[in-house]
């Protein structure tokens, strides 16, 4: 545990109502976002590093470490960690992504001191016992096997690998049984220090929170965290593209189509979000209406955008009968290629309303709000005012969508994954032919 309490730097200027940010002397950022009228709060400790920062030998270690810290940290055993939080009416969880790792506590008003103490132990003082590690490798091994047995998980991993190959973004966040098998307590402790560098840590709270209390807790528990000799670094990613086809005896074919596009920090980020919404974001979307309602090709079909700091993908997922897979691939390619040229003002207005609605609904959840603010700090070094985000959405024009659509077609690169009966295999080449000619 970190005991001395040291003052933080002066708070950064902020618009009225925006979460306030402080920086501790060691680089840890602290953000407080009170929400009036709530009796609960959310506390997140987010590290701006994840599986994208792993080399091949450490593939899956960030996720394995996230598991291991719950096996015992500070003075608490695995059972005592969860008992302490649940005895006070709270919940505790964690998640590992490609670019961030997050530890979260939801608690009743007054639960921040316990939540901060427990999360600090998890992030800064895990025990990493050798016997616990041996058992947890088995648990993660079962998680890897479960993902391989779940078609709509496996097909996304196949598409990710087709898109990025042997780069970190092309590997599963879970790693492999072999790659996690070589981790030992010493090497995992070294990886913890490199991954949870205080310069990449954000302590973020929203809901029934008091700023002075939060800042004191953060300084007490995180203020003495030391930087590692060398922090983990992420290599530049390159979308390669390709096809991944796996024949498997399933009732349905599972299809994923990915096209390279902009990242979250690009000026066209909201253009991409709106493009994906119009393409396949809801029941009024192009894909839903054309593929499901008009042609009956699929029960499940949707489009999405997955964005990283420097780049992203436009994705389409569908589950369909194997006999319909090739036709569905052609429909998906046709809708992507044609969307930018034919969006109506009504479609654009509806998409803007949907994205703004989702944004403001999310802000009513303390946990989502704390997570979002932490992510914004890690990406932009400041919280983004909701009005600024809404203005960015509203500024997108029909011409912007046409330009993005032209760029998607001009890339002439796609990553396609097809998982299911042999009859569906032709969907991979059918998509690329229909998309690029």
Q: Ends: how far apart?
A: 61 Å
Instruction: Give a short account of the largest sheet.
Output: 6 strands, mixed
Give the mean pLDDT.
94
CATH A-level architecture of the largest domain: 2-Layer Sandwich
How many β-strands, per DSSP? 13
Report the β-strand fraction as a percent range.
15-25%
Adjacency order of strands in the biggest sheet:
1-2-8-3-7-6
CATH topology of the largest domain: Cytochrome Bc1 Complex, Chain A, domain 1
Q: What oligomeric state do these chains adopt?
A: single chain
Integer count of domains? 2
CATH class of the largest domain: Alpha Beta
**What is the percent of helical residues?**
40-55%
Order of helices and strands: EEEHEEHEEHHHHHEHEEHHEEHHHHHEH
Described by the principal axes of the CA atoms, the overall outline is globular
* Poorly predicted runs: 1-16
How many helices? The count is 16
Q: Find the CATH superfamily of the largest domain.
A: Metalloenzyme, LuxS/M16 peptidase-like
Explained architecture:
This protein has about 425 residues and is an alpha+beta fold. It has two domains: about 20-220, 2-Layer Sandwich (Cytochrome Bc1 Complex, Chain A, domain 1); about 240-435, Metalloenzyme, LuxS/M16 peptidase-like (Cytochrome Bc1 Complex, Chain A, domain 1). Helix content is about 45%, strand content about 20%. The chain has 16 helices and 13 strands. It has a six-stranded mixed beta sheet, sandwiched between helices. Strand 4 and strand 5 form a beta hairpin. About 50% of the residues are buried.
């Amino acid at each position: 545990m970190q005991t001395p309490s040291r003052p933080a730097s002066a708070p950064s200027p902020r618009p009225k109502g925006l979460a306030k940010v402080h920086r501790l002397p060691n680089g840890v950022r602290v953000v407080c976002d009170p929400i009036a009228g709530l009796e609960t709060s959310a506390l997140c400790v987010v590290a701006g590093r994840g599986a994208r920062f792993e080399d091949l030998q450490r593939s899956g270690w960030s996720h394995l470490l996230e598991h291991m810290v719950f096996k015992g940290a500070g003075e608490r055993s695995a059972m005592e960690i969860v008992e302490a939080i649940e005895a006070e009416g709270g919940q505790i969880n964690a998640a590992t992504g490609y670019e961030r790792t997050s530890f979260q506590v939801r608690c009743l008003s007054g639960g921040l001191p316990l939540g901060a103490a427990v999360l600090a132990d998890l992030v800064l003082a895990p025990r990493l016992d050798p016997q616990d590690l041996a058992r947890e490798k088995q648990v993660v091994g079962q998680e890897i096997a479960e993902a391989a047995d779940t078609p709509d998980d496996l097909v996304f991993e196949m598409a990710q690998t087709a898109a990025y190959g042997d780069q970190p973004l092309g590997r599963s966040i879970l790693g492999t049984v072999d790659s996690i098998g070589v981790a030992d307590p010493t090497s995992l402790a070294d990886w913890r220090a490199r991954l949870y560098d205080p310069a990449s840590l954000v302590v973020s709270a929203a809901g029934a929170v008091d700023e002075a209390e939060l800042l004191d807790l953060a300084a007490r528990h995180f203020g003495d965290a030391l930087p590692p000799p060398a922090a983990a670094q992420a290599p530049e990613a390159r979308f390669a593209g390709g096809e991944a086809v796996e024949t498997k005896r399933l009732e349905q074919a599972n299809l994923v189509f990915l096209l390279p596009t902009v990242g979250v920090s690009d000026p066209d980020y909201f253009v991409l979000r709106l493009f994906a919404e119009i393409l396949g974001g809801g029941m009024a979307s192009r894909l839903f209406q054309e593929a499901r309602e008009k042609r009956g090709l699929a029960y499940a079909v949707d489009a999405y955008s997955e964005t990283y700091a420097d780049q992203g993908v436009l994705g389409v997922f569908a589950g369909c009968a194997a006999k319909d897979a090739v036709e569905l691939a052609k429909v998906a390619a046709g809708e992507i290629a044609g969307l930018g040229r034919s969006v109506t003002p009504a479609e654009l207005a509806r998409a803007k309303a949907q994205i703004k609605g989702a944004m403001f609904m999310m802000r009513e959840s303390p946990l989502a709000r704390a997570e979002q603010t932490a992510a914004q700090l890690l990406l932009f070094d400041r919280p983004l005012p909701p009005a600024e985000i809404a203005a960015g959405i509203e500024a997108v024009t029909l011409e912007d969508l046409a330009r993005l659509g032209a760029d998607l077609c001009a890339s002439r690169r796609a990553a396609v994954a097809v998982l299911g009966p042999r009859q569906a295999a032709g969907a991979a080449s059918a998509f690329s032919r229909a998309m690029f000619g």
